[in-house]
Amino acid sequence: MYSYKDIDQLHTDLKNKKVTCTSLVQQYIQKIKSQKDNPIFLEVFEKSALEQSQKIDEEIAQGKFRPLSGLVVSIKDNLCYKGHTCTAASKILQNFVSTYTSTAVQRLIDAGAIIIGRTNCDEFAMGSSNENSAYGAVKNPLNNEYVPGGSSGGSAASLAAELCMASLGSDTGGSVRQPASFCGVVGLKSTYGRISRWGLIAYASSFDQIGIFTYNISDAAKILSVIAGADNFDATCAEIPVPDYVNEYKSIKQQKFKIAYFPEVIESEGLNIEIKKSIENTIEQLKANGHIVEPVQFSLLKYLIPVYYVLTTAEASSNLSRYDGVRYGYRYKEAQTLEEMYKKTRSIGFGTEVKRRILLGTFVLSVGYYDAYYTKAQKVRRILYNTIKDIFKKYDAILMPTTPSTAFKIGQKTDDPLKLYLEDIYTVLANMVGIPAISIPAGKSKENGLPYGIQILTDSFQESKLFAISDKILELNQHK
Ligand code: GLN
Predict the structure, then answer these.
(1) Torsion angles phi and psi, residue 80, rounded to 5
(2) Ligand 1 pocket check for 208: Cβ under 6 Å
């Protein structure tokens, strides 16, 4: 069994005829099918994946290579792919078949990638453990008693279990970076507006970004170069030209950077001691390597979670109103009246967490409370934005933990939603401000043997800097 973790290696082997795309895809399909007791994949796209791989093999036989030829990719179950089922891990979309393909997925296909299947996630991307899926909780492949993180838990697990070479997820408040941290892989959320959201099932539209899971920085940079860039179907997608990220980050990698960290974050109560030590080590390593790493005052930590959950639930309550049994998916058929049909469809179709958030969001948007919650939270979002933008006037990047701890046990936090919300404390900032952020593997806990990540954030559209600094840190980590 070949298991590739690097596009360059794959391309070398394809060129040397050591492997064909078709044999590779067949092997991955077999391996996915053998995962019987872990619902990482909700569906394998066997037919279309094999059609794609045959086509790519024919091209390669003629010496034609595209940027991602033969790259086997899984996609989160909230990305539309024409003719394929897409459910957002919800009962309400159980039989929904996409009528068009999301821009990011289309660009992957056009670049030669092969879409192997759709991965499990928290329902409508709401969650941090993948336990909110209507189709069963994903287990962390590194230890089956633990969660893989969420909401893109299946995507992260699909890499940790070596069932594909890369995955697309979505990140509204950490859903790519947190599972990447829990599964020991790289997880990137790009700048808001860098990747088109066309065909991504909306959760909180001013926060949502499609994200990328890979085993290394260079693959993330390659994939981003392919899927980023303006799109006529998404007005929030920036017109800013897309560089060749690999060339660009490699060309600046030897520069010395100015990096900030927040003592308030590193000293925060809930942060696991091993993760704290690892951050401190990284700071020391970077300094020893000639970078400037300095503490910066940040007093807004305690507002992050409340503001995030006021704003995202508000947007979700509006976005999810479209699932009413009339237009998409599930409908309660025995209803006597239209109102009963709406009520029953939504009560049966949505899971508990999604309903909780729709209720919360409806509440904060209601006439009597709008100003007290929604308007106030928007004001705090602006203050946060200004604060972070000021920091980037002086610094290239911010260094943070990705998560307060390593993965937790399945079931451990299910009866306390607040505990689960606190998981997102370090990741929501990037979405609130719209800046790019990445989680890279930083170490393994001595306590439970599970991995944890470290997070790097840069100013908007500075993904090359993000990659350069990440690669540097990974390199320093290896030589420790
Ligand atoms: N855990 C966060 C939430 O439940 C993040 C979700 C996400 O990024 N999609 O909202």
Answers:
(1) -70, 140
(2) no
